[in-house]
Design a protein that fits this description.
The complex is a heterodimer of chains A (about 260) and B (about 500). Chain A is an alpha/beta fold and about 260 residues long. Chain A has 11 helices and 10 strands. In chain A, strand 7, helix 8 and strand 8 form a beta-alpha-beta unit. Chain B has a two-stranded antiparallel sheet with strand order 1-2. Helices cover about 75% and strands about 0% of the residues of chain B. Classes of the chains: A alpha/beta (about 260), B mainly alpha (about 500). At the A-B interface, helix 3, helix 4 and helix 7 of A face helix 14 and helix 15 of B. The complex binds adenosine-5'-triphosphate and magnesium ion (MG). Adenosine-5'-triphosphate (ATP) binds next to strand 2 and helix 2 of chain A. Chain B: Part of the binding-protein-dependent transport system for phosphate; probably responsible for the translocation of the substrate across the membrane.
């Protein structure tokens, strides 16, 4: 019967979206990422975990070349997105970032209205033909960001006037609005209450159907709940990378084990 | 006692107060600092503050009040006829002071002894010659009433100085003893010092505010005098500026106000785009190394004296504009023009706009830019749609500050645009042609005050009315700028 087909598809081996080889990042003289090799699959949620300062954000920022904006940062290695090296001279970082969206660790809404915050990406990329379409995109994105009900009556209010958690969901909605192929989320739930967290996790699960999502998190439970693949970083090294279930139940490296059982961090 | 000595002695007492307060507090705690309510140095500062601050305040007050009291008393002996002869009381008093100084010098040089200086009489000896011999500036013959007043003046000034020394040093000692008595291990010196520091800060800001108030009040006073002699309606709405020192002047301020606004507008049209673009380039595109060189270079512009800009306008820009634009196009043939002054003033204002805007643009958090780049925006899109809107209120503040600079500028206007008021009655062409000479409120304030006329005539007093108007305008602009800048602070975060 038809019921069988989605299951069949789920078993298919997924395409590799990002293939990262021998990646190094330096901040001036600090070697922040050392020899990282990782494959990020399409239509999968990949979680990055690890103690604070181990380089999760740094590595995440390599994936859409956000480190370009930091003068002292230097990135080496190959990052193949759909087979093309994103650090190649021919690649326009601007277009890359439209494809690889990002939600930052700290909420950073623009000092504009809520509506304009969401409409920002669609406007610069010309995603909407007219106002009605734009309205539709804004509403859909806010709903996906699990914040529609709270802001639907005040779309003209400034985005900076929202609470921290609301701002973060606004930023998620903003990133989703440009329809990226890969969504990078840096601790998207660290400022959210359990209800909003559940809503965002639901969103992540939904995004997985069409995109690849990479999420940095400090919550083991969250990583276990939402991700299929988990990467454990420690002091700039990728210590272990594998199926989430395997990492959490049967870690191979002793450092991973002590981290998830709460002994380092 | 010379002032410097008084101050030094007071400071010395303060030091003693510091050491005594500290050691007494420590002593009351048996030498164990931990038993004290506050750190030992707080007891010291408490002693220092109580010794020095009231004493110096008293000295400042004395120095402010005493001269006018002494002058009043010395002037009391001068007959009215004398005052009428010399014109005004202040002129007579200036003479008295100079004579007094000459007597001091004579005593210092040994040509007179103190007794002689006090009892000298103009009717018996040739005082004038003897005083001139000291090298003092004596312009008229010193006659008996003046000499007597000067002698009184000297004696009173001496006495005042003596009383002041005693009072100030006495107060310092009282403060010292009081602080010393209070220093005890349970005394909350830290809190008192905190209060004291707050009081000093409040005092400083009060002085600033009072000065502003004083300026406004003195202007108001003279302006009121002016409006008693000249109709305010004609002043504010008159289209003609034609002062005539023989009377019957027309003192409409609109031509001057128009000149001010027009020249400022041209200046801002030059300064704002250039300054803003320079700021954007420096803060967003330039490499740190280029920025480190370029920013100070632009700021050098702000250090050039306005008179130098004026010269530049007078001998370079003015003739250039006349020869290459105004004359060929038939717009006029004067070297002085609105355009010249506006252009040069605009150059002067570039660093104001660029430096402030640069700071403001830099204050926009990097997270804001990251957010925009993260959505796939280019650098110029990010600047246009995120950075500038976020910085806009601050930039407007910077522009308004530049505008108040432009409105207050005098030198560049005289040398660039001349000193002839706009001929508003000749119609629109005469008003808006930017290639003609025009002048501003500030220039006319100077020329009205330096005119050789009676100080009480409307032709002179009008300067105060103009000044006050200008003050109100720039104050309004500054308040607006402050308001906008403050609002801007709440923007992000
Ligand atoms: N802009 C920067 N300049 C210099 N050093 C940096 C910069 N950003 C990060 N680092 C350094 O790189 C290392 C990794 O930082 P990163 O922000 O990637 O850690 P993280 O794993 O995201 O930590 P957290 O969980 O606390 O967010 C740290 O040692 C940090 O000090
Ligand atoms: Mg991080």
């Amino acid at each position: 019967m038809n019921d069988m087909r989605p299951l069949e598809r789920a078993v298919e081996t997924k395409e590799i979206k990002f293939e990262c080889r021998d990646c190094q990042v330096y901040y001036g003289d600090t070697h922040a990422i050392k020899d990282v090799n990782v494959d990020i699959e399409d239509k999968t949620v990949t979680a990055f975990i690890g103690p604070s300062g181990c380089g999760k954000s740094t590595f995440l920022r390599c994936l859409n070349r956000m480190n370009d904006t930091i003068d002292i940062a230097r990135v080496e290695g190959s990052f193949l997105l759909d087979g093309e090296n994103i650090y190649d001279k021919r690649v326009d970082p601007v277009q890359l970032r439209a494809k690889v969206g990002m939600v930052f660790q700290k909420p950073n809404p623009f000092p504009k209205s809520i509506y304009d915050n969401i409409a920002y990406g669609p406007r610069i990329h010309g995603l909407a033909k007219n106002k009605a379409e734009l309205d539709e995109i804004v509403e859909k994105s806010l709903r996906r960001g699990a914040i529609w009900n709270e802001v639907k009556d005040r779309l003209d209010a400034p985005g900076t006037g929202l609470s921290g958690g609301q701002q973060q969901r606004l930023c998620i909605a903003r990133a989703v609005a440009t329809e990226p192929e890969v969504l990078l989320m840096d601790e998207p739930c660290s400022a959210l209450d359990p209800i909003a967290t559940a809503q965002v996790e639901e969103l992540i699960d939904e995004l997985r159907e069409s995109y690849s999502v990479v999420i940095v998190t400090h919550s083991m439970q969250q990583a276990a709940r939402v991700s299929q693949k988990t990467a454990f970083f420690h002091l700039g090294n990728l210590v272990e990378f594998g199926e989430t279930g395997q990492i959490f139940t049967n870690p191979k490296d002793p450092r991973t084990e002590s981290y998830i059982t709460g002994r380092i961090g | 006692m010379p002032l410097l000595w008084i101050v030094l002695v007071v400071l010395g007492l303060g030091l003693i107060g510091y050491l005594m307060g500290r050691s007494r507090a420590l002593g009351s705690a048996g030498g164990d600092g931990r038993q004290l309510h506050s750190l030992p140095s707080y007891y010291g500062w408490h002693g220092f503050m109580l010794t020095v601050v009231p004493a110096l305040l008293m000295m400042a007050a004395w120095l402010l009040v005493a001269p006018s009291v002494i002058e009043n008393r010395a002037a009391a002996g001068i007959p009215d006829a004398k005052i009428a002869e010399r014109g005004s009381r202040s002129l007579v008093m200036a003479e008295v002071r100079r004579t007094g100084e000459a007597l001091d010098m004579a005593v210092a040089q040994g040509t007179m002894d103190e007794d002689m200086a006090r009892n000298l009489r103009a009717d018996f000896t040739d005082v004038t010659e003897r005083l001139k011999a000291t090298g003092a500036i004596i312009t008229t013959t010193v006659d008996q009433p003046i000499l007597e007043a000067a002698q009184n003046y000297r004696v009173m000034a001496k006495a005042s100085n003596l009383y002041m020394s005693i009072a100030v040093l006495g107060l310092a000692v009282v403060g010292l003893v009081f602080a010393f008595m209070r220093s005890d291990k349970d005394f909350r010196a830290r809190n008192v010092v905190e209060q004291g520091i707050k009081a000093i800060l409040i005092l400083a800001s009060t002085i600033a505010i009072m000065t502003t108030l004083g300026i406004v009040l003195s202007m108001l006073f003279e302006t009121a005098n002016f409006f008693e002699q000249y109709s305010w309606r004609e002043f504010f709405f008159g289209l003609n500026w034609a002062p005539d020192f023989r009377g019957n002047s027309e003192l409409g301020m609109l031509p001057l106000l128009w000149g001010t606004l027009y020249i400022s507008l041209v200046a801002l049209l030059v300064a704002v785009p250039i300054g803003l673009f320079a700021a954007i380039y420096l803060s967003e595109y330039a490499s740190p190394r280029l920025r480190a060189v370029a920013k100070p270079m632009i700021e050098i512009l702000a250090g050039i004296p306005t008179i130098v800009y004026g010269l530049f306008a007078l001998i370079t820009v003015g003739p250039l504009i006349r020869d290459w634009i105004a004359q060929p196009a038939g717009f006029g043939n004067s070297t002085n023009s609105v355009i010249t002054a506006g252009l040069v003033m605009g150059i002067m204002l570039i660093p104001f706009v660029s430096s402030l805007s640069d700071d403001i643009i830099n204050a926009v958090p990097q997270a804001m830019r990251d957010g925009s780049y993260g959505l796939g925006a280019t650098q110029s899109e990010t600047i246009k749609q995120v950075v500038l809107p976020a910085a806009l209120p601050g930039i407007v503040g910077a522009v308004l500050l530049a505008a108040s600079r432009a409105i207050g500028e005098t030198m560049i206007v005289v040398m660039g645009a001349g000193a002839a008021a706009a001929q508003m009655e000749q119609g629109l062409g005469a008003i808006i042609n930017p290639f003609q000479a025009m002048t501003t409120v500030t220039v006319k304030i100077v020329s009205q005050l330096t005119g050789d006329t009676d100080f009480a005539s409307p032709e002179t007093l009008v300067a105060f009315a103009l000044g006050l108007t200008l003050f109100v305008i720039t104050l309004g602009l500054n308040v607006l700028a402050l308001y906008i800048v403050r609002k801007y602070r709440e923007q992000y975060e």
